[in-house]
Fold these 4 entries.
Entry 1:
Amino acid sequence: MEKLKDKKLVSASTEDDITSKNASRIEAKDVKVWYDDFQAIKGIDMVIKPNTVTAFIGPSGCGKSTFLRLFNRMNDYVEGFRMEGKIKIEGNNIYKKKVNVEELRKEIGMVFQKPNPFPKSIFENVAYGLKIQGIKDKKFINERVEKALRQADLWEEVKDNLKKSALALSGGQQQRLCIARTLAVQPSILLMDEPTSALDPISTAKIEELIHNLKEDYTIIIVTHNMQQASRISDYTAFFYLGELIEFDKTRKVFTNPEKKQTENYITGRFG
Ligand SMILES: Nc1ncnc2c1ncn2[C@@H]1O[C@H](COP(=O)(O)OP(=O)(O)OP(=O)(O)O)[C@@H](O)[C@H]1O
């Protein structure tokens, strides 16, 4: 796989095709995180295979979001943040000094809990990432926008109203728009931090179906508090507790025959 070679991460470049890239493999080695004196992650190892959906579960404050945000270096902005260990994507340590964080974030898209479209048109929201990369070719941009909206299963609903404000869409449509905006720059990994917790059941079902379809092209990690959701959509589940990775296995195994008592207690609702 070519996409995450050092070359790509250290020098800005624009893609000139609209084909999908391959999903990436993620590897965490003895990862520890502190916020000032508080240790939020206590030595985690994990390998996430390409083209899989992995759910991060665990009670509030156990470190799921902190761990997720390591993969696109979002924690770098947090005051007092310090990390030890290695995060490798396609074999490249993404915390090396020479890594271009802007480039990294094109490869690793993120979708947040609350849909956060820009106060711009539907089209401009999806085209945004391409335009800030300096891409000017209108035909290319149009094709990418359509492709991303189709991948996010929103195209049929918005194709006649691309100039309409994104803020006029429903919450569920806005979240699919945010997914399209992320997909337009063709990442290889999609990080989702509770992407459906603000949505109604129908919109949630749509996003879940979408996640299922997207794993053909992406490696997906989703933080969720919803056990049914984790068991419905993920191939692997990681259970975190107090900054430690207690169990990480195939989802079916975690939910039907967990190795650890703590996991069982959590998934059966006995704590958290
Ligand atoms: N910016 C920060 N500064 C200081 N401590 C933080 C910061 N962000 C998170 N923490 C602490 O790190 C720990 C892990 O937080 P994190 O948000 O990763 O947990 P989480 O499992 O995602 O929780 P939730 O399910 O409630 O979102 C918590 O104790 C939290 O208080």
Entry 2:
Amino acid sequence: FKSCSSSSSHGHGPRSYPVIGCLLAFYENRRRLLDWYTEMLAASPTQTIVVDRLGARRTVVTANPANVEHILKGNFGNYPKGKPFTDVLGDLLGKGIFNVDGELWHAQRKLVSHEFSARTLRELEMAVLEAEALDRLLPALDAAADHPAGPGGAAVVDMQDVLRRFAFDVISRVSLGVDPGCLDPALPTAPRLASAFDTAAGIIARRGAAPVAAVWKIKRALALGSERRLRDEVKVIHEAVMDLIRSRKKERFLVNDDNGGATRNDLLSRMIECGYADEEIRDMVISFIMAGRDTTSSALTWFFWLLTRHRAVERDVLDEISAMALQHAGDSSEGGEGFDLEDFRKMRVLHAALSETMRLYPPVAWDSKHAAAGDVLPDGTRVGRGDRVTYFQYGMGRMESIWGPNAAHFSLDRWLAPSSTSSSVDASGGVSPFRYPVFQGGPRTCLGREMAFAQMKFVACAVLRRFELRPVDEGRTPAFLPLLTAHMDGGLKVTVRRRVEKKQH
Ligand code: HEM
């Protein structure tokens, strides 16, 4: 570091620390960088710091809601993701929505927003969730509850692993219209497509964290080590998706039904219907898989863990689910869960518990833009052309200036306060997305938020109604690993017990 400085709005200039002191502090905090940044942001008068590391791009990190609103909305045009970001992800994501700026982004956003708001997609998602939960997720937990292998007479399950497999199957079925079967007990190893995504995402996360981009760029040019592996894994993904596009087109040509062949509602098929070029479709669906895969499983992993720590909240969530189930007791339509999207919208306690989980453990821990031109943020921080500007969800969730003195506590009250009482809260629980940018905010806000909440609620209801999960190591507070999307270090190993007698799910 040349300097770490905390920014001030009143013209006092940033506070600088001596070069050596800063380097030492960085070294000392290398295993707890997120918390260290959070502490520095909390100590800054405007919750903004400037990191000026020797040989690296000047970086403004902010947890200030006015700055975040300015970056994500007020001066949106000046804060694209930028080439340094799109370079890192470009080999995998190509020109998919997640990885482009300007006109290319705008055109995709329009198309994709339309698709995401379509009733057909919501119906498909609910059908996929039901099938995946009933056929795979619940039987996997049932099997664990049946096997007296672990402590207390129940088998140990890594919930993080189970939830990641589940999420990959769901997002593949919704995006590609195929079921990779990650949770299928008959498949001993992860399907090739899932492992290719895993490996590629891991290598790309390391690219993003590399102190000097030139190193991975040289390795890529020479096809060495991890970069060679990445190239091979991306090839597997690209070929699999292209094969699907071609076979789907053939199928469409052969099927001649009354709808003109439009028999599938997955995103890939719908994009074929819209007449997009094969490579455009490929890049778009890869972006959806990346965006929709590990985010929900990360949030759910922390959610289940937090409930084991907060039994009163667990009881409140269960009461709400049971009350909703009672309303459906006489339904003949009950196939599996019996809940529909309307029910999920009414579940305020569950919504609050999920929102509160993501406040403390956001699936995307930070997000960076690159300034197209010089600017001054609302708190007075100067931004130079090309500077990296990072808003920091993890730190914002823990800022007392935003959440009050009990910011560190897991408490649903902040979401269930009378001001937010309405029979159906909106997806952010009524809190400004610039104070709580877990799904980003402004024109580029997450397109899958509704879908994500539906999925998380579906899984929470299905699992909690039937099973009691308890961590194998009750005393452990797991570490938060921010990677491309956040993980729980070491997974979430739990024992599974049935709450009710075994019956057909
Ligand atoms: C708890 C779950 C989720 C969280 C916390 C989340 C969060 C985010 C965040 C922070 C961004 C902005 C990232 C960036 O621009 O670099 C984003 C973008 C996006 N998300 Fe989500 N997401 C979730 C689930 C989903 C799901 C299930 C989908 C569905 C496929 C999805 C689709 C997208 C898309 C397409 C974008 C790009 C939007 C654009 O650039 O215009 N997300 N999400």
Entry 3:
Amino acid sequence: MDAAGRKASGQIGRLVVVGLGLIGGSLALGLKAASGCREVIGVARRQQTCEQAVALGVVDRAVTEIAQVLPELEAGDVVFVAVPTLSVESVFAQLKDQLPAGVTVTDGASVKGSVIAAAENVWGEVPEFLVPGHPIAGSEQSGVTAARDDLYIAHRIILTPLENTASEYVQRIERMWQAVGAEVLSMPVVEHDEVLAATSHLPHVIAFGLVDTLAHDAENENIFRYAAGGFRDFTRIASSDPVMWRDIMLANRDAILKSIDLYTSNLGSLRSAIASGDSEHLMGVFTRAKAARDHFTKMLAKKAYTETMEAKEVTFVAQPGGAVNGDLRVPGDKSMSHRSIMLGSLAEGVTEVEGFLEGEDALATLQSFRDMGVVIEGPVNGRVTIHGVGVHGLQAPPGPLYVGNSGTSMRLLAGLLAGQQFDTVLTGDESLTKRPMNRVANPLREMGAVVETAEEGRPPLKIRGGSALKAIDYTLPMASAQVKSCVLLAGLYADGETSTTEPAPTRDHTERMLSGFGYDVRRDGPRASLQGGGKLAACHIDVPADISSATFFMVAASIAPGSDVLLRHVGINPTRDGAINILRAMGADITLENTREVGGEPVADIRVRYAPLKGIKIPEDQVPLAIDEFPAIFVAASCAEGETVLTGAEELRVKESDRIQAMADGLKVLGVDAEPTRDGIVIQGKGGSDQPAVFGGGEVDSLGDHRIAMSFAVAALRAGADIRIKHCANVATSFPNFAELAQGAGMNLEVR
Ligand SMILES: O=C(O)C1=C[C@@H](OP(=O)(O)O)[C@@H](O)[C@H](O)C1
Ligand SMILES: C=C(OP(=O)(O)O)C(=O)O
């Protein structure tokens, strides 16, 4: 918001700032810059500070006693108490009985419990005009000379109003902070003090303590001479104002002691690990901490990551025309990446993975196993090292396992977790929370697991530990590799032989990878079975490029005249190659080169050249083999000559979106006749016309579904005007570098 906008919404009367340091001075400057108040009056004990504040333009005038200004205040004015925590009470005492009605009092202390106690001591109860607050914007600098008018922009202000705080006062303070560009949120007092003890007060104790320890060391001259970046970064906050921090320690004693005790015990474990050379323990702590800190940096940079992904709004604007050319390698296979982490974690020994998909879905699985105590190094350029803990080595996670947008994570993990001794809760994002989970909960219950779901079998899933699982012979009601894998993974923990029978072939990566880890899986047509109670041995996994991601470029090359792409090292497992078969049946020019086997999975380089397509009736036996590729295939069908009919694909309705409806809606917006049916779609291809443009321009909604988003981006190659695609952040779940690769290959795609 610009200054004029803030002024309109944020005007208060006069602002009285008691305490002219960094925090008070910066609010004064910010509010003046935004014309957010009529006048700023400063109050500081020392005359020199008053003069300095006026000379610097921080305040309009300044006095040494608050009593000097109280008589002239009136309703709508605000008093901001920005003195060290333990001095707040004496300021309140000076306000008592002299504050005119309608004036709001707020403060900026780091501890809220002590401010509440100070108010009770002075007024007997917390008055309705007091709005306790805490701007999270301090730095190691202090004093009025450090004040800046932009200190609060994009910073958070926590307000902790009590039940009897009147809402008009709270609203005034919210508007005041918003006027200087801050984001205001509220929290109960106790929660505020505990959160701040852990995130701010403890780090200050450690920084002050560490610098003091080293400064007392006889060798200190040398220590400080050689202490470079790490020491400087880590101890910056030991330059903070000692009085302010002494006050905070005393005021928030109990919460800080709790944090110190927790930290001391962890430091003790680290000490023992170093003493005994326990490298596993050290790697566990360091890899978990690195992941947490990297995640935090991404959150601060407002980049996509599992928990913040939905908050980020990404729009694709795909410009019409172009062709795709070049030699590309799309990221690693998502299904195999998930399974490599799961089986590597349960194996004995160290599993090395290459080609791992660094997309949000596979990272959510990885984080879940870290949360269950597995040491996992990486990913770095697709390389992951998993220190397996054995089939019975997982530990209870500290909280619910959050798997974001990933159905595969939730359904496969459900099977594994049913066999553990500890309870777990699996949660996900808004899209995943709408997807059916009874398809896994029911067979797990038949095995003796205790699994609770929310209404109508939706997530979260609560899985009780300690159940003795018994083997079952399960006939799947739908063709689903996730359900099959869930049952087989639970079967590792069951007494006896667990088997699954599927109505049609589905991806068999679980069966293949289990065999790769030395676990005996018997396969007989539609039936797969394994005996519980075995062991997995660590191995090396080379994850090929994901055929589901490659499909976007297969379709792109097939519909855009002048295209010729080579897609390297793509997995062409016969349970995944439906898109190749369907596109070829439509007339696509696809050749497989350098076909080979890598780690038990067939792999090839796929060459695709433009060729005119024709509509077909898609054979139902191909549906499970191309289940994730249909959104892209519908784009190909729109560019084909004649009608394409899909049946037997009702499963598409329960993916990240209802993919039949979402694609039909978007295609209609772009001028294609696409009629959804119960279990499929009928598309009238427009490829036979003389017009190069099959699609009109327009705005379509991907509904947060990565595959819908990428499919409409590809459609632009044959569009007559821009296609704007809303809600594309989730492309990062399966294909984080889609836009870069697409642009490099010749598509005109802009990410906003
Ligand atoms: O097992 C797997 O890795 C997957 C199976 C498929 O789901 P269903 O089992 O629900 O068909 C697929 O859609 C999903 O992207 C990945
Ligand atoms: C359906 C998909 O994934 P999941 O079920 O793992 O969310 C997909 O990637 O298209």
Entry 4:
Amino acid sequence: MPAATLDAFLNSYLGPPDELRSAVVATVRQLTQAATKVRNTINQGVLGTAFAGTRSANADGDIQKDLDIFADDIFLDAMRHAPVALYASEELEQPVLLDSQAPLAIAIDPLDGSSNIDTNVSIGTIFSLLPATGAPDANPAAAFLQAGVNQLGAGFFIYGPQLALVLSLGSGTHVFVLSTRLGTFVQAYESRIIPQRTQEFAINAANYRHWDEAVRLYIDDCLEGTEGPRGKDFNMRWIASLVADCYRILMRGGVFLYPGDKRKGYRQGRLRLVYEANPIAYLIEQAGGAATDTITRILEIEPESLHQRVPVVFGSAREVARITRYHTEPSAIGERAPLFSRRGLFRA
Ligand SMILES: O=P(O)(O)OC[C@H]1O[C@](O)(COP(=O)(O)O)[C@@H](O)[C@@H]1O
Ligand SMILES: [Mg+2]
Ligand SMILES: [Mg+2]
């Protein structure tokens, strides 16, 4: 029987007194308040213009939209009232030291799907909760260079038709929706289970000519549908908001790919390991899915730097495993010989 509210869920997670657990719960509570503020701002319909004059380039060189910076300020401020030692954000070159004695470190993408801000398509906030290891005041970035398996919890808010929180604290992936009538987040599902198989993929196909052969072949085979080696038709989606693509996969399965490609600066894809791929991989695995960098499990990758990128494939476990085989044992896929000699459907 699902707990009716986020509060009830968090209380049931608390269990016996435990400093880390209560820190996680207090932090999630602060995050929900911050997300509600961001949502209220979005609802005022002031996205592009309200924060004029705040545009600049972030740590990854992207042009920051004004709402990115606003959201970052809101979440940073909220974390000052949480048991958080360190706050690392996509929008900040270096982590901020908040309280060296506090037990947690948070890595956050305050506004995911920025290219959709002006288009009224779902955007979100992604967060990863880690133990604040090492000496936070001596080397703030070091706490974030731990593999995703160490996460104590992870989640994202999605500012869509509903304000939803997708959350895992290590036992399943749960979805809560803000009820404006009740003034609280209400559990919408007990725990998501992603189907093992799928007939739906998500990828930015405009990059087809830049992909490696393994990715092209996988997509070619999907597009051939019932006439190709897969023997079934596929559907395609690409929202260009990681949170929205992930939410759909949690609801009905599917596979998401943002591989590395040959464009300058995209050899490791576009997504960031510490505050995008790791929390998403944690949620997906907790829902029975899988997440890799095409070959290696995302959660086992040891980050080398806070803002590093990583190729990402996640979703229905059998499909993710198949994509790995396209990369590691291509001759075992289908019945083609010699492999990679075919011309792709997108190619002239
Ligand atoms: O525009 P592209 O290359 O298709 O990339 C879209 C991807 O980039 C992102 O917008 C990156 O996140 P940010 O908006 O936080 O930079 C993802 O949400 C999305 O999956
Ligand atoms: Mg993002
Ligand atoms: Mg962002």
